[in-house]
Amino acid sequence: RYVSKTGVLDLDPETLHPKVKLYRDKSTGKLKGDASICYAHSESVDLALQILDDSPWDNNHRIKVQRAHFEAKPQQQGQDANDGVVGKRKRNVSEAQRKVARLAVLQAQDEGFGERLAGGRKGLRIIVVKGIMDGIPDNRLEEVLHETFLEFGQVEKITCISKTQVVIVKFVEPISASDALESLHGKPNPHSNTTKMEAIYWDGVTDYTKAEGDDEKEKEEEEKRHEEFGNWLESQEELPPELRLQVASDDG
Question: Is the model's pLDDT at 115 over the cut of 70?
Answer without folding.
Answer: no
